[in-house]
Amino acid sequence: MGNNLFKICWLSFWLFIATILVTIPIILVSFLGSRGNFAFNMARVWAWIILLVAGVSLNVSGREKLDKKRSYIIISNHQSHFDGPALAISLGLQFRWIAKKELLKIPVMGYALKAMGNIFIDRSNKEIAMQSISEGLNHLPEGVGVMIFAEGTRSEDGSIGKFKKGGFAAAIQTGFPILPVAISGSARALPKNGIVFNPGTIHVKIGDPIETDEYSSEQLDDLVEKVRAVIVADYLG
C-alpha cells in the first residue's frame, strides 16, 4: 500500500511539473502565429518526462516505413493513458489529435491544446463531427498527420475492440494514407482502471502505410477491416 501511494504521489508531482514546463512556452509561442509544430515538440518533452519517471521504455519497429514529408491518418489500438505519450515519442512524426471540444474549456491547458492545432469535434453530432474532421485534415500543414484511436476508448480487457468508422471515412474523402500502429504492453504499465504505474516496456509496431485513394465510400467496411487486421496481427497482447 505504501509503495503504491508513493507511485501515485510521484507521478502526480511530475505530471504537474511537466505540464507547467511545457504549457508556458506553448502559450507564449502561440502568439507568434506558430503552425503548432513547436507546441507538439514541447508535448513530446512532456511525454518523455512522464514515461521516464514511470520507468517505462519504448521498443519501436517499422519506423523505416515512414515518409516524413507525407501526412498520415494514424490509426492505433488503445490500451492505456500511456499510449499517447508513447506514440508522440516513438513515431518521429508531427501529428495532431482529434479531441472532444469540451477539452477547450480546461483553463490554460485548453488554450495549449488549441495552440497545437488539434482538431476539436462535437461528439454529440456525428455529421458535424465528420465535417470538422474533414476540414481539419484539409488545413493541416504539409507533413503533419492526425492521430486516431479507432476503438474510441481504452480496451477493458486488453483485446482489440471494434473500430469506429469516422477516421476511415475521412481518409477516403481526403485521400490521406492510413498508417496502422499496434501498441502492446501499455495496459500493464498503466491499467485502464488503475492509477498505479508499473515500470516496463511499451512495444510500438508501425505497419505499412495503406493508400486510400483506391477506396470508395462503398468500400469503407473493407478498409476498416483491412487496417484492423494489420493491427491485430502486430499486437503482442
Question: What does it look like?
Answer:
With 237 residues, the protein is an alpha/beta fold. It has one domain (2-234): Glycerol-3-phosphate (1)-acyltransferase (3-Layer(aba) Sandwich). 43% of the residues lie in helices and 17% in strands. It contains eight helices and seven strands; from the N terminus they run ααββαβαβαβαβαβα. The protein has helices at 2-30, 37-53, 83-90, 109-115, 126-138, 166-174, 186-189, 220-234; strands at residues 56-61, 73-76, 94-100, 119-121, 144-149, 178-184, 200-206. Strands 1-7-6-2-5-3-4 form a seven-stranded mixed beta sheet, sandwiched between helices. The mean pLDDT is 88.
Architecture blueprint of SSEs:
Elements: H1 2-30, H2 37-53, E1 56-61, E2 73-76, H3 83-90, E3 94-100, H4 109-115, E4 119-121, H5 126-138, E5 144-149, H6 166-174, E6 178-184, H7 186-189, E7 200-206, H8 220-234
Parallel strand pairs: 1-7, 2-5, 2-6, 3-4, 3-5
Antiparallel strand pairs: 6-7
